[in-house]
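Below is a filled-in request sheet from our internal design queue. Each sheet records the structural input a requester submitted and the sequence that came back. We keep these sheets so that new team members can see what a complete request looks like end to end.

REQUESTER: design group, bay 2
PRIORITY: normal
MODE: inverse folding
CHAIN LENGTH: 83
BACKBONE (tokenized):
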């Protein structure tokens, strides 16, 4: 926090602008990095589990045709030339 205090001032940490130095910001950056690493690891685990159970690719025909048409039965962008 830049100004780490609550309504009752329960936080003993001083922020960057209150003379606390970089300790609080470094702690928060460590928290951000650890959450990012956790998210990447568990997202990859989920991706591999899904990839093992179902096919994540569409057929080549559906890819050429467009997924809007194969999934929803209509084209999202009608780009046919006008006559």
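RETURNED SEQUENCE:
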């Amino acid at each position: 926090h830049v100004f780490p205090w609550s309504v009752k001032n329960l936080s003993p940490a001083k922020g960057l602008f209150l003379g606390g130095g970089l300790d609080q910001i470094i702690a928060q950056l460590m928290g951000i990095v650890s959450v990012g690493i956790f998210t990447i690891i568990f997202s990859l685990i989920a991706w591999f589990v899904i990839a093992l159970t179902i096919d994540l690719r569409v057929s080549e025909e559906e890819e050429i045709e467009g997924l809007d048409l194969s999934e929803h039965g209509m084209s999202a962008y009608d780009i046919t030339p006008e006559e």
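SHEET NOTES:
- The CA atoms of residues 62 and 71 lie 9 Å apart.
- The chain has a mean pLDDT of 81.
FILED BY: M.R.
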